[in-house]
Amino acid sequence: MTRTRSIVVIGRHGQLARELAALTWPRDCLPHFLGRGEIDLFSPTLAHNQLSALRPLAIVNTAAYTAVDAAETEPELAHLLNAELPLRLGNLALRLDVPLLHVSSDYVFDGSAGAPYPESTVPRALSHYGRTKLAGDIALLDSPADVVVVRSAWLFGWQGRNFMKTILARAAASPILRVVNDQVGSPTPAAVLAATLRDLALDLVAGKPLPRLLHFAGSPATNWHDFAAAILQAFHGAGHLAGLPQLQAIASCEYPALARRPAMSALDSGLAARLGYPTPDWRAALAALARNRHRPAISARMVA
Ligand SMILES: NC(=O)c1ccc[n+]([C@@H]2O[C@H](COP(=O)([O-])OP(=O)(O)OC[C@H]3O[C@@H](n4cnc5c(N)ncnc54)[C@H](OP(=O)(O)O)[C@@H]3O)[C@@H](O)[C@H]2O)c1
User: Fold this and answer.
1) Is 129 assigned a catalytic role?
2) Top mutation candidate among 10, 16, 129, 186 for ligand 1, by most atoms within 8 Å of CB
3) Is the Cβ–Cβ distance between 183 and 107 less than 8 Å?
4) Contact present, 78 and 105 (Cβ < 8 Å)
5) Residue 301 above 80 pLDDT?
6) What is the C-alpha separation between 107 and 215, in angstroms, rounded?
7) Cα 77 to Cα 74, 245, 247, distances in angstroms
8) Which of 5, 22, 96, 189 is most buried, judged by most C-beta within 10 A?
9) Atom 19 of ligand 1 has which residue's CA nearest to it?
């Protein structure tokens, strides 16, 4: 069958871009993955010509500056990628008359809420990363382009760098792990977020009306220490870890970091669920990953 529907994904080698590439797409749909080597979004004419040649029906932006601590010392680059790039993509999407799906973060919130954040909460970021992501959100939400900003959180899976792989690598290398227990969030299986972005893109192409801002993250909320414990149990239970390292809960102040993180950044994904994009249970996804026979070998090299 001829593939006719073209979807452009901005980003190629990142965690989420790889998960999107690993998905099954409808037979008549061709996703094009454009990393920084394939497209220069800061050359508007060139980027417009490149994109229009692909005749996309929708654009999905996964590109971002995601190093939360490094953003404190590279504020210009973080701003360029997280605030300026979405604005430029919004302009391009408008010129091409196609919808744009953009991925954002729970770190746009300050963590002072007592319950998971719905889309209606006014954000206030604590870190430069969070502020630049928020600037990108605002630029797109204010733009006349057809956009959906999807905020997610705490991605994990086999692709790219993430907390699950870090914990498994450290467990293979050290008998004691110290993990903070005073930051609560929403672990999200990156593969499920990718599948939901694919479905959202296809639904947009089909003309389904969607809100311009959606929260989509895993449930239930947990803290990094308990998430680490669940990771270790899942992989130990599936026979992939010889022993269980000792896991110590520590406070954030005992693990100094350049960027401030919110104490509670869990996202309320109820609106997405009501629209037909169900909230993933991260515990089930973790168990499925632990059972996955095609996993890479667990070693300290996984996060090298
Ligand atoms: N990871 C998380 O836990 C998490 C949590 C909440 C929200 N998010 C959001 O989810 C999205 C995807 O995150 P991720 O984990 O997939 O990030 P990632 O693994 O760090 O990938 C970053 C992507 O950005 C692109 N990029 C980085 N620097 C670039 C540059 N100088 N020029 C052009 N492109 C550049 C990369 O392009 P190449 O393909 O060319 O390398 C890559 O595809 C981001 O918007 C992030 O803010 C992530």
Assistant:
1) yes
2) 16
3) no
4) no
5) no
6) 12
7) 6, 38, 36
8) 189
9) 14
- CB 57 near ligand 1, within 6 Å: no
171-174 — which CB contacts under 8 Å span 24+ positions? 171/232, 171/235, 171/241, 171/244, 171/245, 171/298, 172/241, 172/298, 172/299, 172/300, 173/300, 174/245
| SS3 annotation, 6-39 | EEEEECCCCHHHHHHHHCCCCCCEEEEEECCCCC
Calculate how far, in angstroms, residue 197's C-alpha sits from the geometric centre of ligand 1. Answer: 15
**What pLDDT digit, counting tens, does each position of 190-213 carry?**
999 999 999 999 999 999 999 999
11-69: pLDDT as tens digits:
999 999 999 999 999 999 999 999 999 999 999 999 999 999 999 999 999 999 999 99
Q: Which residues pair with 33 in a beta bridge?
A: 9
Kindly indicate whether the domain formed by 5-303 is annotated with CATH number 2.30.33.40: no
* Banded model confidence at residue 111, pLDDT cuts 50, 70, 90: very high
Residue whose CB lies within 8 A of the most ligand 1 atoms, among 10, 33, 36, 128, for a mutation test = 36
Q: Does the pLDDT value for residue 265 go beyond 60?
A: yes
Q: Which amino acid is at 133?
A: K
